[in-house]
Design goal:
With about 130 residues, the protein is of the alpha+beta class. It is about 30% helix and about 20% strand. The longest helix is centred in the last third of the chain and has 16 residues.
Length: about 130
C-alpha cells in the first residue's frame, strides 16, 4: 500500500492516509505530473494510455497525488474483480494492518461487516415520542 502523511496539516497532521488494493501493486507514484503527463488530462492520463510503469517517486514538494498501478490479465470471456482500499489510520502500523485485514476479505463480506458495525452503533439508542 501507498502511505502518506502531512505533518504540517493543521487538522489531520498526525493521521496516515493509505491507498491499497486487493490485487498486487506493481508500481506507485505520488507525482501528479508523472501520472498525467505533459499533454494528458485527468480523464486521459498519459501513464494509463501509454501503459507505463510508475517510477516510485514519492517526494515532498511535488504536486501530490496517490497512484498505484497493476498489470491485470483478464482471460478471454472471463472477468476480474478489483477493489481499492482508501482510508486513514493513527499510525503507519495501523494503516498496514487495516490494508492486510481488508485485502483478504470478500467485498460483500466487508459491506455486511460494515453495516453490522454501524447498526450496533446506531441502534443502541431508540427514542419514542408521543407524536
Amino acid at each position: 500500500a501507498l502511505l502518506a502523511q502531512n505533518p504540517y496539516g493543521l487538522d489531520f497532521g498526525e493521521r496516515v492516509a493509505f491507498l491499497g488494493a486487493s490485487h498486487p501493486i506493481h508500481s506507485v507514484t505520488a507525482d501528479r505530473s508523472e501520472f498525467i503527463g505533459r499533454h494528458g488530462t485527468t480523464e486521459y492520463p498519459q501513464a494509463v494510455l501509454g501503459g507505463l510503469a510508475l517510477s516510485g517517486r514519492i517526494e515532498a514538494g511535488d504536486d501530490p497525488c496517490a497512484v498505484v498501478a497493476s498489470d491485470i490479465d483478464i482471460p478471454a470471456g472471463g472477468d476480474v474483480t478489483l477493489s481499492w482500499l482508501l482510508g486513514d489510520a493513527a499510525t503507519p502500523a495501523e494503516a498496514s494492518a487495516l490494508v492486510q485485514t481488508h485485502r483478504g476479505k470478500d467485498f460483500d463480506q466487508r459491506l455486511a461487516d460494515n453495516e453490522k458495525a454501524w447498526r450496533g452503533f446506531l441502534d443502541t439508542i431508540q427514542v419514542e415520542t408521543p407524536d
